[in-house]
Amino acid sequence: MRSVSPGRTRKDFLDPPEAYSQPKCYVKTGNHVKNIQCHELAEILLSPERPDLQVCSESMSKCVEVRSSDKLVIAEVSGSEVFANVREGDYVKRGSKLAYVITSKKEVRSLRSDFEGLVVLVHEVPASRPPKLLIFIREGGISE
Q1: What is the pLDDT of residue 60?
Q2: What's the pLDDT at 59?
């Protein structure tokens, strides 16, 4: 078995499973930054009493501000296989491709956005069959 050197960043199919890590989610309220589980972040965003917060993506080095008064829309994607075409912090326009779905008949379909705004979170619902993604979009302009 091949080992991964400490400074190596490239991931390929020969890397051992421990070379991959789960995404990290952060919430910033005021000056306080808290590392949380991504499923907790989805629950906070779905809460009717959502606080003002910033959702930060470590992989993108971006934060998206979400106020309690902001309108969030959720695009749900499910199928035999689902692949997100957007990441946290991406700006999407009406008609932008959000994700690709491979159906049980092995057809490839794409989901397009009905909304314009910033992607706050791409959440893979754990243990759902068929696989499901929830894409949270803060509706509106690109102002942060």
Answers
A1: 62
A2: 64
pTM, 2 dp: 0.77
Residues 6+ apart with CB under 8 A from 87: 57, 59, 60, 119, 122
Q: Tokens for 51?
A: 């606080």
Instruction: Look up the CATH architecture of domain 22-139.
Output: Beta Barrel (2.40)
Q: What is the mean pLDDT of each run of 10 residues along the chain (144 residues)?
A: 45 46 68 82 87 76 84 92 89 94 89 92 85 91 56
The residue among 40, 26, 20 whose CA lies nearest residue 89 is 26
DSSP 8-state code for residue 6: T
- Could you tell me the residue ranges of all domains in the chain? 22-139
d(CA 78, CA 62): 27
Kindly compute the dihedral angle of the four CA atoms of residues 72, 102, 57, 26, in this order, to the nearest 10 degrees: 70
